[in-house]
């Protein structure tokens, strides 16, 4: 269960938040979202799993494959009726969510449901929509402070040979260079159709895809370290930072990496508070349709929710806050789906 041991609310009281942030709609929305998690099932792992080093043996299960990790779109309502044909309360709820989703989108692209799922689905959308090279793109340099943190970086099996895996810094530089080159390739296409072709080539479960996902994890660490430094210096930071670093397992960037980020793709996926970090890293507002919350204010959640007006929006859909798929607009939905 997600309880006090995860977020340790005792470390963050309302007065502390008021001293470091402007209390407004954005903060209230974030706190409501994360507070709801204290009474829901932890869909990734609990503290026990973090301490259980035997879980690291699951690393050997991550293999490079040659099949598409984001498949072609299927009709949303057809998919809903096929996958949720039962008469349980959950089935009825999710079908209702899909019916509302179908008012805006026509198709659903299913994403491989491993522990990279949130990263993969989000990055797929970013590449599909990338018309200009973003200003935040990082060169393939890694600072000395970052080197100290990432020396224990793990890569998927068969991602690179043993010699390259032993040289973590050089391998990460390779991933970052590949990340930038892929973004450049996407921006140099003539339009949406060609960008889709680039994505179709990249997201095949091979080394090219895993290099992008590992680079994205590093960029998240880079942003986390910057935000943590701002916190230490008393500067204003997004509210989620105080929650991210409130956990006993994530009090510093080093422990955040060791106990959380390094395990993404292996023994766990992104937790809700880390979805905010992902959005800040990519400077995208991640709009998620949470189908099982269709009758609540959390049916559509934004990560983060304080840049909806000035950052591009990418849309995902989830049935359980664990696995994410990509909704796409069919020809009949193009006008209503435009941002």
From TrEMBL:
Site positions (Linear diubiquitin binding): 298
Catalytic residues, chain numbering: 114, 117, 323
Subcellular location: Cytoplasm
Gene Ontology biological process: protein linear deubiquitination
InterPro entries according to UniProt: FAM105 (IPR023235), Otulin (IPR023237)
UniProt keyword list: Cytoplasm
Matches recorded under Pfam families: Peptidase_C101 (PF16218)
GO CC annotations on file: cytoplasm
Gene Ontology MF term list: cysteine-type deubiquitinase activity
Location of region: Linear diubiquitin binding: 83-84, 112-114, 267-273, 320-322
Recorded family membership: Belongs to the peptidase C65 family. Otulin subfamily.
Name by which UniProt lists this protein: OTU deubiquitinase with linear linkage specificity
Lineage per the UniProt record: Eukaryota, Metazoa, Chordata, Craniata, Vertebrata
């Amino acid at each position: 269960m997600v309880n006090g041991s995860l977020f340790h609310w005792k470390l963050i009281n309302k007065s502390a938040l008021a001293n470091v942030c402007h209390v407004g709609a954005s903060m209230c929305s974030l706190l409501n979202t994360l507070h709801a998690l204290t009474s829901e099932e932890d869909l990734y792992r609990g503290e026990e799993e973090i301490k259980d080093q035997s879980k690291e043996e699951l690393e050997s299960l991550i293999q490079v494959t040659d099949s598409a990790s984001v498949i072609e779109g299927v009709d949303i309502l057809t998919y809903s009726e096929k996958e949720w044909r039962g008469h349980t309360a959950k089935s009825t709820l999710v079908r209702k969510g899909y019916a509302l989703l179908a008012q805006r989108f026509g198709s659903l692209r299913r994403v491989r449901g491993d522990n990279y799922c949130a990263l993969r689905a989000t990055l797929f959308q970013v590449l599909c929509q990338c018309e200009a090279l973003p200003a935040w793109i990082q060169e393939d340099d890694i600072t000395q402070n970052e080197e100290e943190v990432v020396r224990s970086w793990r890569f998927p099996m068969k991602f690179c040979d043993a010699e390259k895996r032993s040289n973590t810094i050089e391998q990460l530089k390779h991933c970052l260079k590949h990340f930038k080159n892929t973004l450049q390739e996407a921006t140099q296409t003539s339009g949406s159709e060609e960008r889709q072709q680039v994505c179709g080539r990249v997201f095949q479960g091979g080394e090219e895809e895993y290099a992008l996902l590992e680079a994205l994890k590093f960029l998240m660490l880079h942003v986390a370290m910057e935000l943590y430094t701002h916190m230490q210096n008393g500067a204003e930071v997004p509210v989620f930072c105080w929650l991210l670093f409130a956990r006993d397992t994530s009090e510093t960037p080093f422990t955040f990496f060791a106990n959380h980020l390094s395990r993404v793709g292996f023994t766990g996926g992104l937790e809700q508070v880390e979805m905010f970090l992902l959005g800040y890293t990519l400077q995208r507002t991640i709009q998620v349709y949470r189908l099982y919350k269709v009758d609540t204010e959390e049916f559509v959640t934004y990560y983060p929710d304080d840049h909806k007006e000035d950052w591009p929006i990418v849309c995902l859909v989830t049935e359980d806050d664990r696995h994410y798929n990509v909704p796409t607009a069919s020809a009949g939905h193009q006008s209503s789906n435009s941002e």
